[in-house]
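Session log. Operator J.P. requested a structure for one protein chain; no other inputs attached. Running the standard single-chain path with token output.
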Amino acid sequence: MTTNMSVKSAPERILMAPGPSNLHPRVVQALIAPLVGHKDPYFLDLLDETADLLRHVFCTRNAATFALPGTGGSGMEAALINVLQPGDTVVIASAGFFAQRMVDICERLNDVNVVVVPGTWGQPVDHDVLLEAVRQHRPRAVAVVHGETSTGVEQPLAGLADSCHSVGALLLVDAVATLGGVRLPVDDLGIDVCFSGSQKCLSAPPGLAPITISDRALAAIQARRTPVQSWYLDLGLHAGLWGPDHTYHHTSPVLSLYALAEALRIVVEEGLEPRLARHCLHSAALSAGIEAMGLEQFAARGFRVPSVVTVLAPEGVSALTVRTQLLDEVNVEISAGLGEQADSMWRIGVMGHSAQRANVMLVLSGLEQVLSRYGYAPRGSGTSAAAAVYAGATA
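Structure written below.
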């Protein structure tokens, strides 16, 4: 039997959505390296190296630092279900789509009391209100999103761990949109469980969830009264796989880990501080261009996370339509909003290998071209404003 199927090649996009980001050529090359078995000595050595590299990026000395096989959502679910047991209370700071996902996960757990500290989308959750909820409810865990991908807001974390630990609570932090692009010293902040995703500021392919677990949190997991409800996401078992004995747990995604290790090597070679500064520079240039055009940002000034710039579409302009036009005509991908902002906001990623001057200028020029068709007259040139930021940085 013969078939007449035409196979289309994947387009080479400029990825400026809040994930995934473009891959460095070295990461692409790592994906086509020879496959070895998941028990091969070469691969077990690679696990050790990857764990060390992740410790560097997380700024931690935690022994239990590794990458789960799954997207950032697997890290989120693993963090919550491993720490919480029947009868426990969890306090969740919720002011965005992904914080609400943590609420949804916890509400599926048996006999767990979920206390939501609500905030307004576009603003961080009030720090004092959150601390008061911790003092009042004395929970087993407190969960927050460091950089909320749906709103572009960075949640302040300073001092939160002290309040958690004073009542015996563990601090869980979603760093999916920030690890490797926004300052996040895990040990200095006292974070107990911090998880991320491979495809955003780290610029590896989607499918792995870096996670680090403090000794305090790991001891709490190991002392559970009941088994973790998910065998596959049992963090104690994963810690055994990544530990000195490399105790078998699952067939590791070997090629994905090749790519993650190479992406992490690139982070270390660039230097964490220069890398964070690079993200801040390109985010500042993009923000200056957006504001010069007369467009408004969604996230509150003073709490804008560098890795995700959120922009309100002008009245009468469909954010979804503009996104499609940019993809079709300029070959650049940005994202529309989530929830109530699905058709009224753009979310632009400034992440990893995609965080480059040429990409920022392309986004701004593309927006200027497309918006002009809707009769929108920008106050000034976005590309000129961004260029001024770059000129000031290099002067």
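Operator note: The chain is about 40% helix and 15% strand.
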